[in-house]
Every structure is written in structure tokens, then in C-alpha cells.
Amino acid sequence: MNAFAQKLCIHLTGLFVVLVGGGFAVAGWIPPFSPDGSFEEMAKNFHDQDNVRVAAAMFFFGGAAFVFPTCAIAAQLRRIEGSARPVMTWAQLLSGAIGVLGIQIPAAIWLAISYYDGTDPDIATTLNAMAWFFLLGAVAPAVFQNFAIAAVVLSGDGTVYSRWVGYVNLYCALGLMLGVLTPFFKDGPFAWNGVVGFWIVAVDFFIWVFVMWITTLQAINADTGEAEGAADGRRVAVHA
Questions:
Q1: Residue 201 near residue 184, CB atoms below 8 Å
Q2: Which of helix, strand or coil describes residue 5?
Q3: Is residue 28 within 8 Å of 51, Cβ to Cβ?
Q4: Residue 229 lies inside a defined structural domain of this protein
Q5: What's the CA gap between 33 and 180, in Å, rounded?
Q6: Would 169 be classed as within a structural domain?
Q7: Does residue 103 form part of some domain?
């Protein structure tokens, strides 16, 4: 049952990807609209837009789904760190859970903007900026989650996660840090719709998501195989 539960949890990464990525597509925000537009142009993106409300619902459920793969990763990290005081495993788990808010809060803000027709353009623009800063600027939980995973993986012998997984986490942490630059730019590559501010941060994050999905599933399968082999060995010893 434990192996099945872990596989179910890590495969819910797919639900996260479909709902969150699909939410941006439904809202028509790939890429996002420019932060340098007029307040009236900003407000038009939300007024009488049912697609934004549908996208918000997708973000709510997709963001919550991220908790499950985070737990599956924690289960495998604990095999490396040990069960006595796995502080980095706990740090990864809590960082992932807090990171869910980086999706839930922007979704709630976008939903609030689109909920009432005729929202003042100044208010709509300010709230939209707040939502994007939560999403792309508040990257600290994801960065610390990456660092915690890297610390555990690189301290191990490579039997659970290969060492390259640790280095990928370090690389992705550095890439995600670029999100903190978005509040300083309204246009160009570092704005929230720019090559760096949006595309590099988003691609970097989803690279990490898929790497951890695949390698965690491999670790679960390997652990299951080892457990079954040990059980077979005990049965042979008993019959002997």
C-alpha cells in the first residue's frame, strides 16, 4: 500500500502540470499581458471574463495537488537522511507546502478582480501586479525547497537519487531567483512577461517538476524492488 500511495502522490504531478499550465492557457496568459500597458487596458483583461474565473478554479485545485508529489519526494529523501532527525526532509516538505500559497493567493486575487464588473482600473491594475509578484517574485519557498533537496541528495551515495539530481536542484534554484527581479521592471526581458521574468523562470520550474517526477518514481520502484527481494530472501531462508 505504501508504494502504491507514493506512486499515486508522485503521479499527481501530472494533475498539477495540467491544471496550472492549462489555467494560464485558459486565461490567455501565455505569455502574460504587459505590465507596461495603461490601467484601462489592464482592467479589460478581467472585466466580464469567465475564462479568468475558470482559470482561477484550475489554479486552486492544481496548486493544492502540488502537496502530494512534495510528500512523495520527502518519503524518498528520508531514506537518505535517516528517520531520526530528517530536518532537511522536513524543510523540503514545509517549503513545498508553503509554495502552494504562491499559486493559491494569486488565483484568489485574479478571481476577485474578475468577480465584479466595473472594478476601478487603478484597483484592478494594482491587484493584478500584487498577484504576479506573489507568483514570480515570491519564489523563496521554491528556492529553499530546491536547496533542501540538493543538500540531502548530495549527502547521499547516489542509490536513491543520482547526484546529478542534486545539481539540477541547485541550477533550478538559481534560475528561480530571477523572479525577484520582476518588481523592478515594467518592460524588457526582466518584466513579468519577459524572456527572463516569465519564460526562463517558468521553463526552469517545469524542468525541475519533470526531473523530480521521473527520478522520484524511479526511486520508489527501486525501493519496492529491494523490499520484495529482501522478502523473497527471508522466505527462502525460512524454508531452508
A1: no
A2: helix
A3: yes
A4: no
A5: 19
A6: yes
A7: yes
Q: Is 4 exposed, middle or buried (0-12, 13-18, 19+ CB in 10 A)?
A: exposed
* Rounded Cα distance, 111 and 222, in Å: 43
Q: What is the 3-state secondary structure (H, E, C) of 110-146?
A: HHHHHHCCCCCHHHHHHHHHHHHHHHHHCCHHHHHHH
For residues 6 and 73, give the distance between their C-alpha atoms in angstroms, rounded to a whole number: 9
Residue with cell 527520478: 215
User: If DSSP codes are grouped into helix, strand and coil, which group holds residue 37?
Assistant: coil
Do the beta carbons of residue 216 and residue 73 sit within 8 Å? yes
Low pLDDT (below 70) residues in the chain? 1, 225-240
Is residue 82 assigned to a domain?
yes
Contacts with 42 (C-beta within 8 Å, 6 or more apart), sequence order: 33, 121, 124, 125, 128
Alpha-carbon dihedral 10, 11, 14, 20, rounded to 10 degrees: -40
How far apart, in whole angstroms, are the C-alpha atoms of residue 234 and residue 183?
Answer: 60
Can you give the residue range of the structural domain that contains 72?
A: 2-223
Size (the chain), residues = 240
Closest CA to 142 of 105, 206, 98, 200: 98
* pTM of the predicted model as reported, rounded to 2 decimal places: 0.89
- Position 232 scores a pLDDT of 47
Domain count of the fold of the chain: 1
State the DSSP code for 184.
G
Choose among 127, 131, 88, 91: nearest CA to 107: 131
Residue 121 cell numbers, joined: 482600473
Q: What are 189's three cell numbers?
A: 526581458
Give the pLDDT confidence of 179-202 residue by residue, as tens digits.
999 999 999 999 999 999 999 999
Residue 110 grid coordinates = 485574479
